[in-house]
């Protein structure tokens, strides 16, 4: 009876409770932390996609497309000023990409292309040369190429069929890196690890694991940062040192938390969630109204009129078969799920129960509603 919520709950159990030990699973430092300074850089650019089969911007409704088209043609020696351009084969687009850490000049990047105006589709279009800028306004890459679109749109006189999002696409290896981001990696006497999920206990465990490999090299500065002193023998080979550190395994800690997505009815419960002694009863009041109108037909030659007589059936169900469940203090996640399953609740009811337990102060965990 617990449709999508219990399915999501069961998936959560499969992840956090294999034989009651999944919460203690070890992870590589590489998977829970990253080296500070080694990060992507966001790039953005404005360009034109040409070659569209009448699905581009309407120049009357998208003046920026017309201005861009005229400026591009002028740079190529074609004067179109004071002319009435009516082409629908051009679309103004925003081009985005991520410059990976240590991206070298001449390497290639994937780019995403999205329309700005009222273009219907980018299918079959080609992006013209588009500079990609960083946050500092400098050009770091140049993009150009055939746009690959996964969706489509077919329109007739009375209906329209759309699959996916035809107004955005992707160009694999569509940009060439022109400028490198300067970063003097490996020259510092110390480096820092940034935890993806900040936690005091996890930071301490990471520092202990590193100190077990290199005595006295690491210390936790805060819940998200671990500082590591580079040993003298690795000063000229920092990559080998980081490789050894990344492969060390630790057991990440986490707060007891329940995450609820009310839009989809999804519930995820962490392994450390505990509930104090509490009794739970839940009953639904369901009102069903059924309309079955009947036609009253008069006898022949009686002079009467055919009328529709309403017939309404109202049924009320108070959910009297629902039971009361008592949860003892400190029950585990498995006990909590079993108890909630015993109530025979639907997804929305289960969410209401968890919120009520939290309001009663019996839920020893964070309740996060998305």
UniProtKB/TrEMBL annotation:
One annotated GO molecular function is:
structural molecule activity
Q: Has UniProt tagged this entry with the keyword Signal? A: yes
Offer a single GO CC term for the protein: outer membrane-bounded periplasmic space
Q: By its UniProt entry, which InterPro entries does this protein fall under?
A: Flag_FlgI
Q: Which domain of life is it from?
A: Bacteria
Answer yes or no on keyword Amino-acid biosynthesis: no
Gene coding for it: flgI
Report the function annotation for this chain.
Assembles around the rod to form the L-ring and probably protects the motor/basal body from shearing forces during rotation.
The identity of this protein, by name, is Flagellar P-ring protein
Tell me how this protein assembles.
Answer: The basal body constitutes a major portion of the flagellar organelle and consists of four rings (L,P,S, and M) mounted on a central rod.
- Describe the family membership recorded for this protein in Swiss-Prot or TrEMBL: Belongs to the FlgI family.
- Which UniProt key words apply to this protein? Bacterial flagellum, Cell projection, Cilium, Flagellum, Periplasm, Signal
Instruction: List where in the cell it is found.
Output: Bacterial flagellum basal body
BP GO annotations:
bacterial-type flagellum-dependent cell motility
Q: Where would one find the signal peptide in this protein?
A: 1-24
């Amino acid at each position: 009876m617990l449709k999508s919520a219990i399915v999501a709950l069961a998936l959560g159990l499969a992840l956090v409770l294999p034989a009651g030990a999944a919460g203690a699973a070890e992870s590589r430092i590489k998977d829970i932390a990253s080296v500070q300074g080694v990060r992507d850089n966001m790039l953005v650019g404005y360009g034109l996609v040409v070659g569209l089969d009448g699905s581009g911007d309407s120049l009357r409704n998208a003046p920026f497309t017309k201005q861009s088209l005229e400026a591009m043609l002028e740079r190529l020696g074609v004067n179109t000023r004071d002319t009435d351009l009516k082409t629908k084969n051009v679309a103004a687009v925003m081009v985005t990409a991520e410059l990976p850490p240590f991206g070298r000049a001449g390497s290639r990047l994937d780019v995403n292309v999205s329309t700005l105006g009222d273009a219907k589709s980018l299918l079959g279009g080609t992006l013209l040369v588009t500079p990609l800028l960083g946050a500092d306004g400098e050009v770091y890459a140049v993009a150009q190429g055939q746009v690959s679109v996964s969706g489509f749109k077919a329109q007739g006189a009375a209906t329209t069929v759309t699959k996916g999002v035809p107004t955005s696409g992707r160009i694999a290896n569509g940009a060439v890196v022109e400028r490198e981001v300067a970063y003097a990696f490996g020259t510092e006497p110390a480096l820092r690890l940034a935890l993806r999920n900040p936690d005091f206990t996890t930071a301490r465990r990471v520092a202990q694991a590193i100190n077990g490999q290199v005595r006295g090299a690491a210390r936790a500065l805060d819940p998200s940062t671990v500082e590591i002193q580079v040993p003298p023998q690795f000063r000229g080979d920092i990559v080998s040192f980081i490789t050894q550190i990344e492969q060390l395994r630790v057991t990440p800690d986490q707060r007891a938390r329940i995450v609820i997505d009310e839009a989809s009815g999804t519930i995820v419960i962490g392994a450390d969630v505990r509930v104090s002694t509490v009794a739970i009863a839940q009953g639904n009041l369901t009102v069903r109204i059924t309309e079955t109108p009947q036609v009253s037909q008069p006898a022949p030659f009686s002079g009467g009129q055919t009328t529709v007589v309403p017939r309404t059936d109202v049924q009320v169900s108070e959910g009297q078969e629902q039971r009361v469940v008592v949860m003892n203090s400190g029950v585990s996640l498995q006990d909590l799920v079993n108890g909630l399953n015993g109530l025979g609740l639907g997804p929305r009811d289960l969410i209401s129960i968890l919120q009520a337990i939290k309001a009663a102060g019996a839920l020893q965990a964070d309740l996060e509603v998305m």
